[in-house]
Specification:
Blueprint lengths: L1 E5 L6 H15 L5 E11 L6 E10 L2 E9 L2 H29 L6 E9 L4 E6 L4 E5 L17 E9 L2 E9 L8
Parallel strand pairs: 1-2, 7-9
Antiparallel strand pairs: 2-3, 3-4, 5-6, 5-8, 6-7, 8-9
């Protein structure tokens, strides 16, 4: 994780160290927190000016932004960190919850119907008779796009795509699954 401080000339060194330690603790055991930028500036919105702290973090293609404005820079930083930590924990909880809601075993079975190797996609035929699009990125648990062959038995998760059903995850079929 990289931490970038922008325009924090008036911040106490002990507070800077405490914030960096807190950020490292938030990142410990996770690989989602990649880049954190802390920016301070005086806002013209208050009569005497106030200090705004904005924390922006890149988290696996997403961004979390927490900002607070107070008369004192240190107070704005503490409150922005609190808001940032809450948002990060909520995002992680939502992700964990979505993971636990997914079924452990794919609910559908099918076969590889057609491969378009030079374009990295193909089509599956489900046991229910539906033709379903899949991309090589959907292959999991040891399945390799280059090793797939037409007629191969697979298990899959489905969802609605832009042009109909698509396989979001394609697994090797269980050993005991017979071709219908």
């Amino acid at each position: 994780m990289e931490i970038h401080w922008v325009d924090f000339g008036d911040i106490a060194e002990r507070q800077r160290i405490a914030v960096e330690e807190r950020l490292r603790e938030l990142a410990e055991g996770y690989s989602d927190l990649i880049d954190v930028r802390l920016t301070a500036h005086t806002t013209p919105h208050h009569r005497h000016g106030a200090q705004e702290v904005r924390i922006t973090a890149a988290i696996r293609g997403k961004e979390i932004i927490a900002a607070r404005t107070r008369d004192e820079l240190g107070l704005a930083l503490d409150e922005a960190m609190d808001a940032f930590e809450r948002e990060l924990r909520e995002r992680r909880d939502r992700k964990r919850q979505r993971r636990s809601e997914q079924p452990a075993e794919p609910p559908e079975l099918g076969i590889v119907d057609h491969l378009v190797a030079d374009e990295d996609y193909g089509f599956l035929l489900t046991d229910a008779g539906e033709r379903v699009y899949f991309h090589r990125n959907a292959l999991k648990h040891g399945l390799s796009f280059d090793a797939l062959f037409e007629g191969q038995r697979v298990a899959l998760n489905l969802e609605a795509g832009d042009r109909g059903l698509q396989a979001t995850v394609v697994f090797p079929a269980p050993a005991d699954s017979a071709v219908p």
